[in-house]
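Lab notebook, bench 4. The sequencing result for the construct came back, and we need a structural model before the next group meeting so we can plan mutations. Quick request posted to the team channel:

Model the 3D structure of this chain.
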Amino acid sequence: MLGSISAEEFLSEYWQKKPLLIRGGFDGDPALITPEELAGYSLDDDIESRLIQHDNKQQRWQLSHGPLEETAFQELGEANWTLLVQSLDYFHPPLQQLTKACNFLPRWRLDDIMVSFATENGGVGPHLDKYDVFLVQGEGQRRWRVGYQGQKVSSINPHPQIAQVEPFEATMDVIVNPGDILYIPPATPHWGVSVGNSITYSIGFRAPSIGSILDSLLNSQSLEFDSLWHDEGKLKKYHAFGALHSELPDWAQNELKQLLNRRELLIAAGKTVTELKYPEVLETVNLPKAQELSDIAMSEGIELNPLARIAYFEHEQALLTFINGIYFQFPIGLEKAIQKLNHQMVLSKSDLEELPRLPVGEFLSHGIALGALKLPE
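Done. Here's the predicted structure in token form:
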């Protein structure tokens, strides 16, 4: 996917720093979905989609959220509109080829794949993203103008729900062809305009927020947030007139420090970054059935579901392991298996035979039960 650039060079020179154009970076068939299939997904209640239209003469933007009606497409012209459908890697398996090609990056950083179909001059306008994105050109061509990270731009809202920036001075102005890849780091202005009809795949990579980790901590069943403030011998008469006690913040901070130890923070972070947007899409089984399948896997091997997220922390001689947002603890020794699954997406019979039988059996059982692992087809 990176062409002639090594993963090490990309991570040190470009990742989260500066844009990169990779001609012919995707060597698979770029025709992974048809415009008709994309339009069909936009009619689904469970799939997020948007239809954006732009009137060049009046400089007016229109936005319609899905699910769309079939008649919406009959009323459109042949130019100046784009259809965008989110998270299609969950619903359209051919797109998972793109996620497999990103094995030089952590799987837990992967957010989803958005697909956009645009007609002549269609696009969403110049804008910024908060996340890293690889724009893989499918069918047709698009012109991309790209600035640099941190470039000063003015924010505008031509529509209440469309965030754009004013046109900017581009440091890259290119027309991309099928199979070309354009990497855009966060906070980098970019502007894509379709040349004729075209399809683009946007592979987005998320970064965890401190808010999401705190949410996970607050929802933890192992923590008890029921400690109460005691103020015997501390209250003065003036506190009755609205003055808060100066020790209250220090007490709260000390209580949180005791509760939020490193282990709890590791668990909250691991659960957060491996959660799936649509876990219900994966085929799950009950644990007894999964244990039966794990016995079969020991003689046939196992595969990673392309949608799955499996990651781990090494902590105090244990492997804190996270499978699709669920936490498990395994002994040290399984990390090489997890690494190989993430990189090559398969463990052979011989790979499994090299691992301790008891913990690997438990790991396989839970992975199969959650739909993260499956027997080879």
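Residues 209-227+248-274 form one domain.
Will bring this to the meeting.
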